Amino acid sequence: MESLSGRKKVLEQKPMNFWERIYLPAIFRGMGITFMHMFKKKETIHYPEQEREFSENWRGMHSLKRDEDGRERCTACGLCALSCPAEAITMISAEREKGEEHLYREEKYAAVYEINMLRCIFCGLCEEACPKEAIYLDGPIVPADFLRKDFIYGKDKLVEMPINELEALKGATV
Amino acid sequence: MELAFLFEKLILVTILFVLTLSIAAYSTWAERKVAAWLQDRVGPNRAGIFGLLQPLADGGKMFFKEEIIPSGSNKWLFIAGPSLALLVSFLGSAVIPFGQNIELFGRVVPLQVTDINVGILYIFGVVSLGVYGIMIGGWASNNKYSLMGAIRGASQNISYEIAMGLCIIALLLVTNTLSFKEIAEQQHSWHWNVIYQPLGFLIFIICAFAETNRVPFDLPECETELIGGYNTEYSAFKMGAYMFAEYINMFVSSAVMAVLYFGGYNYPFMDNVNALLGPTWGPLIGVAVMFIKIIAFIFFFMWVRWTIPRFRYDQLMDLGWKILIPLAIANIVITAIVITVVDKL
């Protein structure tokens, strides 16, 4: 039957001729191809020294943001934990005491904020849910580790460094 | 005189032993590097500069792995298998001439451990012993996969040894001697045997691939079908011994091919170079040329490995029995006729 697309190619199984049957020309051609590959550009990225460029909306490790005065933005509303499809986020809230206004922006803050990086699927729903713009997945790749308990990241790893400390660190390196 | 002779041979044997070991060790590194290059990758580069310490790391790993001897196995033969494979692979390099006679400290030293007048027979005897390593190891494991792998390996080695021996006969018609030293000397400067025996060389190199169990003839240890073949049950350094034996075999067969067909330490215009550099440095250039040839052959082994897919078992047997052996016999007949005609003229 005539093929509708007109692209059908009927292959006939022809008996091989002498040169095809001794295979050597084909083998040499194949070896030429593999030899030429030695001089091709390598695709490898030497990882620790060299990193692949990420796209702008790439989602990496979470960071809990501070406002312009260096106060934590999170108010422990729990919307991120609620929106998390992997149930990776837990938190314990606490009330801001007097004299802590320079630490926390709202009257309520997260005393404990934990993300289980083994559960997290990096979907970014937490940053979408957050009304305070307190959590963003703008960090690096979450590093490997040996123990499961070490993958539960607390505030020590998640909260952004205060601006003055960051500048002190920059001053030390420069 | 006697003491100096013993001393000289002892040094030569030690150098050769260390050299064989290090070439075999670095073949494992080179294999991974070549594989990587042919596949547009970089290859091992973490252990030392260019990953040059990789063989040491691999060897160290082999030593520290748990050594398992299966309870159903024959314990003595299980240990004897890899030991025999390793021992036999070392024996081959004893008769290979690595260079012309060299003048060192007023003595003329042959760069060959021993020049026995049946060198080629010796090599073939030793190479055919290599089957025992595979057979014993596979049988002693008391495992069906191992046994099947061993049987395949043995039948492959035996089949291809015939064709290999037949092309050596054609070579002997040309050279009239069994001594490696004399064969090497006959190929002075550019009179390499490959010019007189191109078909013989082709058959020989195909058989060498089969004898060393390299791709495309790696059926005895094909990972996909036989789960490692004869060395399924082996672990730690006994496994390492088998792998090492394979690489040493590759080195020895590369050296044999270089001497038999590619002139060994001979190269064009070697007389001029020898006259220029004197009796100490001249032969050393020859040794360097010999090793360049060997390394080129080893590279060829690896290059083929990453190009050609594996043969099916029946194709392997077809190639060995129906194609290579008749071709080798035809090669003998043609060589004999040509030699007779040339002699009569």
TrEMBL record, chain A:
Span of the signal peptide: none
Residues binding [4Fe-4S] cluster 2: 84, 120, 123, 126
An annotated GO BP: aerobic respiration
Top-level taxon: Bacteria
Ranges where the 4Fe-4S ferredoxin-type domain occurs: 64-94, 111-140
Gene3D superfamilies recorded: 3.30.70.3270
EC number(s) from the headed UniProt entry: 7.1.1.-
Cofactor (UniProt): [4Fe-4S] cluster
Subcellular location(s) per record: Cell membrane
Any one of the GO CC terms: plasma membrane
InterPro entries per the UniProt record, alphabetical: 4Fe4S_Fe-S-bd, 4Fe4S_Fe_S_CS, NADH_quinone_OxRdtase_chainI
Any Pfam family the entry gives: Fer4_7
Catalytic activity: a quinone + NADH + 5 H(+)(in) = a quinol + NAD(+) + 4 H(+)(out)
A GO molecular function held by the record: 4 iron, 4 sulfur cluster binding
Protein residues bound to [4Fe-4S] cluster 1: 74, 77, 80, 130
Top EC class for this record: translocase
Note on cofactor: Binds 2 [4Fe-4S] clusters per subunit.
Recorded topology in the membrane: Peripheral membrane protein
SUPFAM superfamilies reported in the protein's UniProt record: 4Fe-4S ferredoxins (SSF54862)
Protein keywords: 4Fe-4S, Cell membrane, Iron, Iron-sulfur, Membrane, Metal-binding, NAD, Quinone, Repeat, Translocase, Ubiquinone
Family from the record: Belongs to the complex I 23 kDa subunit family.
Function as written in the Swiss-Prot or TrEMBL entry: NDH-1 shuttles electrons from NADH, via FMN and iron-sulfur (Fe-S) centers, to quinones in the respiratory chain. The immediate electron acceptor for the enzyme in this species is believed to be ubiquinone. Couples the redox reaction to proton translocation (for every two electrons transferred, four hydrogen ions are translocated across the cytoplasmic membrane), and thus conserves the redox energy in a proton gradient.
Assembly and binders: NDH-1 is composed of 14 different subunits. Subunits NuoA, H, J, K, L, M, N constitute the membrane sector of the complex.
PANTHER family assigned: NADH DEHYDROGENASE [UBIQUINONE] IRON-SULFUR PROTEIN 8, MITOCHONDRIAL, NADH DEHYDROGENASE UBIQUINONE IRON-SULFUR PROTEIN 8, MITOCHONDRIAL
Name of the featured protein: NADH-quinone oxidoreductase subunit I
UniProt source species: Pedobacter psychrophilus
TrEMBL record, chain B:
Reaction(s) the record says it catalyses: a quinone + NADH + 5 H(+)(in) = a quinol + NAD(+) + 4 H(+)(out)
Entry GO MF terms: NADH dehydrogenase activity; oxidoreductase activity, acting on NAD(P)H, quinone or similar compound as acceptor; quinone binding
Family affiliation: Belongs to the complex I subunit 1 family.
Uppermost EC category: translocase
Topology with respect to the bilayer: Multi-pass membrane protein
Domain of life where this protein originates: Bacteria
One term under GO cellular component: plasma membrane
Function: NDH-1 shuttles electrons from NADH, via FMN and iron-sulfur (Fe-S) centers, to quinones in the respiratory chain. The immediate electron acceptor for the enzyme in this species is believed to be ubiquinone. Couples the redox reaction to proton translocation (for every two electrons transferred, four hydrogen ions are translocated across the cytoplasmic membrane), and thus conserves the redox energy in a proton gradient. This subunit may bind ubiquinone.
Name listed for the protein in its UniProt record: NADH-quinone oxidoreductase subunit H
Lineage: Bacteria, Pseudomonadati, Bacteroidota, Sphingobacteriia, Sphingobacteriales
Keywords annotated in UniProt: Cell membrane, Membrane, NAD, Quinone, Translocase, Transmembrane, Transmembrane helix, Ubiquinone
Subunit structure: NDH-1 is composed of 14 different subunits. Subunits NuoA, H, J, K, L, M, N constitute the membrane sector of the complex.
Subcellular locations according to the entry: Cell membrane; Membrane
Major site of localization recorded for this protein: membrane
GO BP term, example: aerobic respiration
Annotated NCBIfam families: PRK06076.1-2 (NF004741)
Chain ranges passing through the membrane: 76-99, 119-140, 160-178, 190-210, 247-264, 284-303, 323-342
Coiled-coil positions: none
EC number: 7.1.1.-
